[in-house]
Amino acid sequence: LSLFAASANAQTYPERSITMVVPFSAGGPTDTVARLVAESMSKDLGQQIIVENVGGAGGTLGAGRVAQADPDGYTVLLHHIGMATSATLYRKLAYDTLNAFEYVGLVTEVPMTIVARKDLEPTDLKGLVEYAKANKDTVTVANAGIGAASHLCGMMFMSAIETPLTTVPYKGTGPAMTDLLGGQVDIMCDQTTNTTKQIQGGTIKAYAVTSPERLKVFPDLPTTTEGGLPGLQVGIWHGVYTPKGTPAEVNERLSKSLQVALKDPNVVARFGELGTVPSSEADATPAALKAKLESEITRWKPVIEAAGQYAD
Ligand code: MLT
């Protein structure tokens, strides 16, 4: 009967508001992407999607919350590449990454920017590398905890310059940005969805983008390759997940709604202003996200093992 009830509910889904868990603080890049997508999906679904920020442990606390939620389609997770890296970084995760979720689809892939407090002396990436090496005992690098995109990019930066630096973890790069603006922390690698406004406003310094090509929003900002760090390329893909056991019809309905949202002119325009583009219709599907997560776990495992940085 419960199976029948579940599939019957799937036909009338959604009948009430949906919680979208964002595993980082409000005001950060993940939150920005989530609120834009949630607002548009709400219109298509005819039910409110309420964003709930569950920060901590580099995004794994929020992911764990959704892994434990009822598989009824009323709790979803919007998370990024950290879903893949955490599978290697955390030896004691509260969930089994490849068996605790169902898949809805990919949302966007966001480039990262290497930025600093505006009065840091170096004027280009080569100078920043020299500065970091010369001041390795005092330079501080902000991130959103082990498993965050900012942590991954910071780890790649330290590996590339072969110099470990002091990291300062926050519950999201929203609050980290506040300290960068205040000069309490020196550098950060963060997504353009969080740094674009500050770079354009000149309130932080930008050294490079981690994309293969320069960005339309920052035509004068060199790539890491141009700045002498060709290995420092990373794009922060985001996906929407539901708890294991959520009916396939529900995941499909959510995927259809996500595909509509990613074509919403307001979402497309806002993503463009923030240096990113929506995923394609074909990528905003359960199969595409499943394949992406599996391949990314495999891809980043050796990079993380080479850096030797794990969550205790
Ligand atoms: C991260 O650094 O992984 C997150 O993007 C931080 C955030 O969204 O606040």
Automatic annotation (TrEMBL):
It holds the Pfam family TctC. Keywords: Signal. SUPFAM superfamilies: Periplasmic binding protein-like II. Coiled coil: none annotated. The keyword Signal applies. InterPro entries: BUG, Bug_dom1. The keyword Signal applies. This is Tripartite tricarboxylate transporter substrate binding protein BugD.
